[in-house]
Amino acid sequence: MGRVRDLRRARLNGLVVLLVGLALTGVALVLHMAQRGLESLGQDNALTAQRGRTREIANHIESAIATRSRRVKQRLADMGNVLDVALGSAKPDNPEVLTVLETAKRAFDASLAYVLNREGLVVACTPYEGTKTLTGENYRFRPYFVDAMAGKDSVYTAVGVTTGARGLYSSSPVRDGITTELMGVLVFKGHFDEIDQLLAKHQEPIALISNNGVILASNRSDWLYRLAYPISEKQRAELIASRQWKAGRGCSTRRLAGGWAF
Question: Over the stretch 198-217, which tens digit does the pLDDT of each residue have?
Protein backbone atom coordinates (compact mmCIF):
# COMPACT_ATOMS: atom_id res chain seq x y z
CA MET A 1 0.00 0.00 0.00
CA GLY A 2 1.41 3.37 -1.04
CA ARG A 3 2.22 6.15 1.36
CA VAL A 4 -0.35 8.55 -0.09
CA ARG A 5 -3.04 5.94 0.48
CA ASP A 6 -1.74 5.59 4.02
CA LEU A 7 -2.21 9.33 4.45
CA ARG A 8 -5.77 9.09 3.14
CA ARG A 9 -6.52 6.20 5.51
CA ALA A 10 -5.12 8.25 8.34
CA ARG A 11 -7.65 10.98 7.59
CA LEU A 12 -10.60 8.63 7.19
CA ASN A 13 -9.89 6.22 10.01
CA GLY A 14 -8.96 8.76 12.67
CA LEU A 15 -5.24 8.11 12.92
CA VAL A 16 -3.15 11.07 13.90
CA VAL A 17 -2.73 13.77 11.27
CA LEU A 18 -1.52 17.20 12.34
CA LEU A 19 -2.71 19.97 10.06
CA VAL A 20 -1.35 23.50 10.27
CA GLY A 21 -2.64 26.23 7.98
CA LEU A 22 -0.23 28.74 6.46
CA ALA A 23 -2.23 31.94 6.16
CA LEU A 24 -0.06 33.70 3.60
CA THR A 25 0.43 30.85 1.18
CA GLY A 26 -2.99 29.18 1.21
CA VAL A 27 -1.46 25.80 1.94
CA ALA A 28 -1.37 23.43 4.88
CA LEU A 29 1.36 21.39 6.50
CA VAL A 30 0.51 17.82 7.42
CA LEU A 31 2.58 15.58 9.70
CA HIS A 32 1.48 11.97 9.90
CA MET A 33 2.52 9.35 12.45
CA ALA A 34 1.38 5.75 12.82
CA GLN A 35 -0.95 5.02 15.74
CA ARG A 36 1.26 2.29 17.13
CA GLY A 37 4.23 4.62 17.32
CA LEU A 38 2.20 7.15 19.22
CA GLU A 39 0.99 4.60 21.74
CA SER A 40 4.51 3.40 22.40
CA LEU A 41 5.70 6.93 23.05
CA GLY A 42 2.73 8.07 25.05
CA GLN A 43 0.00 9.56 22.93
CA ASP A 44 -0.50 12.89 24.68
CA ASN A 45 3.18 13.73 24.89
CA ALA A 46 3.79 12.63 21.32
CA LEU A 47 0.94 14.71 20.01
CA THR A 48 2.15 17.78 21.88
CA ALA A 49 5.68 17.34 20.54
CA GLN A 50 4.48 16.80 16.96
CA ARG A 51 2.22 19.84 17.07
CA GLY A 52 5.14 21.92 18.26
CA ARG A 53 7.43 20.67 15.53
CA THR A 54 4.78 21.11 12.86
CA ARG A 55 4.08 24.65 14.00
CA GLU A 56 7.82 25.38 14.01
CA ILE A 57 8.11 24.29 10.38
CA ALA A 58 5.01 26.28 9.43
CA ASN A 59 6.36 29.39 11.12
CA HIS A 60 9.67 29.00 9.29
CA ILE A 61 7.91 28.80 5.93
CA GLU A 62 5.76 31.82 6.77
CA SER A 63 8.48 34.09 8.10
CA ALA A 64 11.60 33.01 6.24
CA ILE A 65 10.07 32.36 2.83
CA ALA A 66 6.67 33.97 2.37
CA THR A 67 7.17 37.30 4.15
CA ARG A 68 10.84 38.21 3.94
CA SER A 69 10.55 40.09 0.66
CA ARG A 70 7.23 41.82 1.35
CA ARG A 71 8.52 45.29 2.26
CA VAL A 72 11.14 45.43 -0.45
CA LYS A 73 8.67 44.11 -3.01
CA GLN A 74 6.18 46.82 -2.12
CA ARG A 75 8.90 49.48 -2.39
CA LEU A 76 10.04 48.15 -5.76
CA ALA A 77 6.46 48.27 -7.03
CA ASP A 78 6.50 52.03 -6.42
CA MET A 79 9.78 52.66 -8.25
CA GLY A 80 9.77 54.71 -11.43
CA ASN A 81 11.55 52.05 -13.52
CA VAL A 82 8.95 49.41 -12.63
CA LEU A 83 6.04 51.80 -13.17
CA ASP A 84 7.39 53.02 -16.53
CA VAL A 85 7.73 49.52 -17.96
CA ALA A 86 4.27 48.56 -16.69
CA LEU A 87 2.80 51.69 -18.33
CA GLY A 88 4.63 51.06 -21.59
CA SER A 89 6.50 54.36 -21.43
CA ALA A 90 9.75 52.37 -21.16
CA LYS A 91 10.76 49.47 -23.40
CA PRO A 92 10.20 45.88 -22.22
CA ASP A 93 13.25 44.35 -20.56
CA ASN A 94 15.13 47.65 -20.62
CA PRO A 95 18.52 47.55 -18.81
CA GLU A 96 17.42 49.85 -15.97
CA VAL A 97 14.43 47.79 -14.86
CA LEU A 98 16.27 44.48 -15.34
CA THR A 99 19.06 45.70 -13.06
CA VAL A 100 16.51 46.52 -10.35
CA LEU A 101 14.71 43.17 -10.73
CA GLU A 102 17.91 41.12 -10.86
CA THR A 103 19.31 42.79 -7.73
CA ALA A 104 16.10 42.13 -5.81
CA LYS A 105 15.88 38.56 -7.08
CA ARG A 106 19.38 37.76 -5.86
CA ALA A 107 18.88 39.50 -2.53
CA PHE A 108 15.89 37.34 -1.71
CA ASP A 109 17.08 34.16 -3.42
CA ALA A 110 14.07 34.10 -5.74
CA SER A 111 14.08 32.19 -8.99
CA LEU A 112 12.34 34.94 -10.99
CA ALA A 113 11.28 38.57 -10.71
CA TYR A 114 8.98 40.07 -13.31
CA VAL A 115 6.50 42.84 -14.10
CA LEU A 116 3.10 42.47 -15.76
CA ASN A 117 1.08 45.29 -17.31
CA ARG A 118 -2.64 45.82 -16.71
CA GLU A 119 -3.53 43.22 -19.33
CA GLY A 120 -1.45 40.52 -17.62
CA LEU A 121 1.35 40.62 -20.21
CA VAL A 122 4.90 40.18 -18.85
CA VAL A 123 6.86 43.28 -19.88
CA ALA A 124 10.07 42.70 -17.91
CA CYS A 125 11.56 39.51 -16.49
CA THR A 126 14.88 38.35 -15.13
CA PRO A 127 16.33 35.61 -17.36
CA TYR A 128 16.43 31.98 -16.26
CA GLU A 129 18.32 28.95 -17.57
CA GLY A 130 20.65 31.26 -19.46
CA THR A 131 18.63 33.48 -21.78
CA LYS A 132 15.06 32.22 -21.30
CA THR A 133 12.44 34.74 -20.21
CA LEU A 134 8.73 35.05 -19.48
CA THR A 135 8.52 38.38 -21.33
CA GLY A 136 5.66 38.30 -23.82
CA GLU A 137 3.70 35.64 -21.92
CA ASN A 138 0.27 36.48 -20.50
CA TYR A 139 -0.73 35.36 -16.99
CA ARG A 140 -3.92 37.32 -16.43
CA PHE A 141 -5.64 34.04 -15.44
CA ARG A 142 -3.36 33.55 -12.42
CA PRO A 143 -4.89 34.43 -9.03
CA TYR A 144 -1.75 36.33 -8.02
CA PHE A 145 -2.40 38.73 -10.92
CA VAL A 146 -6.12 39.02 -10.23
CA ASP A 147 -5.54 39.73 -6.53
CA ALA A 148 -2.82 42.32 -7.16
CA MET A 149 -4.98 44.13 -9.73
CA ALA A 150 -7.64 44.28 -7.02
CA GLY A 151 -5.11 46.15 -4.88
CA LYS A 152 -4.03 43.23 -2.65
CA ASP A 153 -0.71 41.56 -1.99
CA SER A 154 -0.93 37.88 -2.79
CA VAL A 155 0.97 34.62 -2.39
CA TYR A 156 0.07 31.72 -4.66
CA THR A 157 1.55 28.24 -5.08
CA ALA A 158 1.64 26.58 -8.49
CA VAL A 159 3.73 24.88 -11.13
CA GLY A 160 4.91 27.39 -13.72
CA VAL A 161 2.99 27.13 -16.99
CA THR A 162 6.11 28.17 -18.90
CA THR A 163 8.96 26.92 -16.71
CA GLY A 164 7.37 23.70 -15.43
CA ALA A 165 8.88 24.38 -11.97
CA ARG A 166 7.05 24.70 -8.64
CA GLY A 167 6.94 28.17 -7.20
CA LEU A 168 5.67 30.45 -4.47
CA TYR A 169 4.40 33.46 -6.40
CA SER A 170 4.41 36.63 -4.32
CA SER A 171 2.78 39.63 -6.01
CA SER A 172 2.12 43.30 -5.29
CA PRO A 173 0.20 45.95 -7.22
CA VAL A 174 2.16 48.56 -9.17
CA ARG A 175 0.51 51.97 -8.64
CA ASP A 176 0.86 55.39 -10.16
CA GLY A 177 2.61 57.48 -7.52
CA ILE A 178 0.30 60.45 -8.06
CA THR A 179 -3.12 59.01 -8.85
CA THR A 180 -2.55 55.66 -7.01
CA GLU A 181 -4.22 54.00 -10.00
CA LEU A 182 -3.30 50.34 -10.52
CA MET A 183 -0.93 50.05 -13.46
CA GLY A 184 0.40 46.51 -13.26
CA VAL A 185 1.78 43.79 -11.04
CA LEU A 186 5.23 42.96 -9.64
CA VAL A 187 5.94 39.28 -8.98
CA PHE A 188 8.66 37.32 -7.24
CA LYS A 189 8.71 33.58 -7.82
CA GLY A 190 10.35 31.73 -4.95
CA HIS A 191 11.70 28.23 -5.50
CA PHE A 192 10.99 25.24 -3.29
CA ASP A 193 14.59 24.24 -2.53
CA GLU A 194 14.51 25.67 0.98
CA ILE A 195 11.17 24.02 1.77
CA ASP A 196 12.33 20.67 0.37
CA GLN A 197 15.50 20.81 2.46
CA LEU A 198 13.50 21.71 5.56
CA LEU A 199 11.09 18.81 5.17
CA ALA A 200 13.91 16.39 4.33
CA LYS A 201 15.31 16.85 7.85
CA HIS A 202 12.33 15.00 9.34
CA GLN A 203 11.94 11.24 9.39
CA GLU A 204 8.17 11.22 9.82
CA PRO A 205 6.12 11.50 6.62
CA ILE A 206 5.36 15.19 6.16
CA ALA A 207 3.75 17.13 3.35
CA LEU A 208 2.85 20.64 2.29
CA ILE A 209 -0.63 20.55 0.77
CA SER A 210 -2.35 23.18 -1.38
CA ASN A 211 -5.83 24.38 -0.52
CA ASN A 212 -7.23 22.09 -3.21
CA GLY A 213 -5.54 18.99 -1.80
CA VAL A 214 -2.47 18.66 -4.04
CA ILE A 215 0.77 17.67 -2.32
CA LEU A 216 3.28 20.28 -3.45
CA ALA A 217 6.22 19.37 -1.20
CA SER A 218 7.07 16.33 0.90
CA ASN A 219 9.92 14.29 2.29
CA ARG A 220 8.34 11.33 0.46
CA SER A 221 9.13 11.88 -3.22
CA ASP A 222 6.34 9.60 -4.45
CA TRP A 223 3.73 11.86 -2.81
CA LEU A 224 4.60 14.89 -4.95
CA TYR A 225 1.75 16.28 -7.11
CA ARG A 226 -0.70 13.65 -5.88
CA LEU A 227 -3.90 14.36 -4.03
CA ALA A 228 -3.96 13.83 -0.29
CA TYR A 229 -7.55 12.60 -0.59
CA PRO A 230 -10.08 11.84 -3.35
CA ILE A 231 -12.10 14.72 -4.79
CA SER A 232 -15.31 14.93 -6.80
CA GLU A 233 -15.41 14.99 -10.58
CA LYS A 234 -16.45 18.66 -10.46
CA GLN A 235 -13.52 19.55 -8.19
CA ARG A 236 -11.13 17.64 -10.42
CA ALA A 237 -12.41 19.42 -13.53
CA GLU A 238 -11.98 22.79 -11.79
CA LEU A 239 -8.48 21.83 -10.69
CA ILE A 240 -7.44 20.89 -14.21
CA ALA A 241 -9.04 24.03 -15.66
CA SER A 242 -7.12 26.24 -13.21
CA ARG A 243 -3.79 25.10 -14.73
CA GLN A 244 -2.32 25.43 -11.23
CA TRP A 245 -0.51 22.09 -11.44
CA LYS A 246 -0.75 21.37 -15.16
CA ALA A 247 2.98 20.90 -15.68
CA GLY A 248 3.53 18.77 -12.59
CA ARG A 249 4.67 15.18 -12.71
CA GLY A 250 1.84 12.79 -11.91
CA CYS A 251 -0.87 15.21 -13.06
CA SER A 252 -3.26 12.57 -14.33
CA THR A 253 -7.03 12.28 -14.42
CA ARG A 254 -7.00 8.67 -13.27
CA ARG A 255 -6.30 7.04 -9.93
CA LEU A 256 -2.73 5.89 -9.46
CA ALA A 257 -1.61 2.86 -7.54
CA GLY A 258 -0.68 3.97 -4.06
CA GLY A 259 -2.44 7.30 -4.21
CA TRP A 260 -4.85 9.64 -5.89
CA ALA A 261 -3.97 11.81 -8.85
CA PHE A 262 -5.94 14.36 -10.80
Answer: 888 878 788 887 777 888 88
Q: Summarize pLDDT for 65-99 with one digit per residue, the tens.
A: 555 556 666 667 667 889 999 999 999 999 999 99
* Nearest alpha carbon to residue 183 among 101, 119, 92: 119
Q: Please list, in sequence order, all residues whose beta carbon lies within 8 angstroms of the beta carbon of residue 60, skipping any fewer than 6 positions away.
A: 198
The strand pairing partners of 121, in sequence order, are 138
Beta-sheet strand order (sheet of 166-175): 122-125, 112-117, 182-190, 166-175, 154-159
Within a domain: 146:
yes
Give the length of the chain.
Answer: 262
Whether residue 103 is found in the same domain as residue 181: yes
d(CA 212, CA 27): 9
Looking at the structure, tell me whether residues 176 and 204 fall in a common domain: no
The 8-class DSSP code of residue 223 comes to G
- The reported pTM is 0.73
Same domain, 123 and 44: no
92 and 161 assigned to the same domain: yes
Q: How many angstroms separate the Cα of 153 from the Cα of each of 2, 69, 81, 169?
A: 38, 12, 20, 11
| CA-closest candidate to residue 86, choices 149, 161, 170, 150 | 149
- Report DSSP letters for 156-175, one per residue: EEEE-TTT--EEEEEEEEEE
3-state secondary structure of 215: strand
